[in-house]
Design a protein that fits this description.
The structure is a single chain. By secondary structure, this protein is mainly α. The protein folds into two domains: 9-110, no CATH class; 123-196, DNA polymerase, domain 1 (Orthogonal Bundle). The protein has helices spanning 9-15, 28-39, 41-51, 57-64, 68-82, 85-107, 114-126, 136-144, 150-162, 169-183, 187-196.
Length: 197
């Protein structure tokens, strides 16, 4: 983070890994909040506390009742999620342009989430399971089963996932809820998506 930069420029510097676009849209502050809170609300609160409120890891750790290392991990994970293709696209064009894209899609009779789905599919196809903030138990169970990509979990489907060794009901729902949250699908939509595979 560039300490001399104000929010949201400081967070954008880290999201774009030190080479942010030379110009951002006028509504960049609202866009940063929108993109941030659609990733994970808890992670966003901590990241905004760090970047916007200039709180240290120690202060955030005391405030949230967790360790400094966990605070650091959550901020790193937040930045990684902000770098997914969909989030970067919205950050670069701004909320107004993003909303206009959605309005244009609807007016032309296109499905509202067509672009989102295309980007989500790209992320699913190329992301390692480490992209998901899985518990150690869930990560190890998937790794032992030879599951390396998020695509592999989707291809298994809800029923196949249940048959993976060491995945009980709690771990099963942890994995499914993370997929649903990260890819913006309802449980029903995800089940239908898997059935179509």
């Amino acid at each position: 983070m560039r300490q001399n930069q104000k929010f949201p420029q400081n967070i954008l510097w880290d999201v774009f890994r030190g080479t942010p676009p030379t110009q951002f849209p006028d509504d960049i502050l609202a866009t940063v909040y929108y993109v941030g809170y659609t990733q994970n609300q808890k992670y966003a609160e901590i990241a905004f506390g760090y970047y916007r409120d200039r709180q240290t890891y120690e202060q955030l750790a005391r405030l949230h009742g967790i360790t400094k290392e966990r605070i650091r991990q959550m901020i790193v994970e937040f930045l990684r999620r902000m770098r997914n293709p969909y989030s970067l696209h919205v950050l670069q064009i701004g909320m107004n342009a993003y909303l206009m894209e959605r309005v244009d899609a609807v007016s032309q009779g296109q499905p509202l989430r067509s672009k989102d789905d295309e980007i989500a599919d790209e992320v699913v196809n190329h992301s390692a399971i480490g992209y998901l903030p899985l518990s150690t138990r869930a990560y190890n169970a998937l790794k032992r089963a030879g599951i390396k990509k998020v695509r592999d979990i989707v291809d298994l489907g809800p029923t196949g996932l249940l048959h993976v060794n060491n995945i009980g009901e709690k771990t099963y729902w942890e994995i499914i809820d993370l997929l649903i949250r990260d890819y913006g699908e309802s449980k029903d939509a995800w089940y239908i998506h898997c059935k179509e595979k």
